[in-house]
Amino acid sequence: MIAVDHTGFSVTSLEEAIQFWTEAMGFDLTRQGEMGGEFLREATGVDDPRCRMAVVTAPNGYPIELLEYSTGGTLGQTPRSAGAIGAAHIALVVTDIHTAISRVETAGWAIKGSPQSIPAGPRCGTMVAYISGPDGITIELMQPPV
Q: Which residue, 26, 75, 79, 35, is CA-closest to 53?
């Protein structure tokens, strides 16, 4: 493991979540955007993963990713799906995503999707994969481009 990258939370309302994190918690709104399509479905294992997102940053620089999946309300409030309301994930930076996945599978945990390279944006070329860790905790593995 190299580092912890960010923490993500699936939310019911992106606007309300941004308001909470910025006004109540003192975070700064860093960016907003939309994600979806084949890349996100393959990376997360969520069917029809249309998603609005925002990143809020703590005063010390630690980012929290807020994700409003279009199908979130139908997925239930369980950590078994990366897109479920209330589900959270922690992102860990790794040097070799395939070796990390192999270690996860050897330990008896499951990969949720398949490793995917981010196709555009500030993280273009970063390989990502979602795994299910102990107690259903979702962990995103991130391998930066070389």
A: 35
Q: How far is CA 90 from CA 28, 82, 129, in A?
A: 20, 11, 12
Predicted pLDDT of residue 78 = 59
User: How much is the pTM?
Assistant: 0.69
* Distance set, CA 145 to CA 4, 38, 108, 116, 139 (Å): 16, 20, 28, 12, 19
Q: What is the pLDDT of residues 65-108, one digit of tens each?
A: 999 988 776 666 655 677 788 777 888 899 999 998 998 888 77
Identify any residues that bridge with 117 across adjacent strands, giving them in sequence order.
Answer: 127
Place of tokens 């996945």: 101
Nearest to 6 by CA among 112, 133, 141, 97: 141
- Could you count the other beta carbons within 10 Å of the beta carbon of residue 116? 19
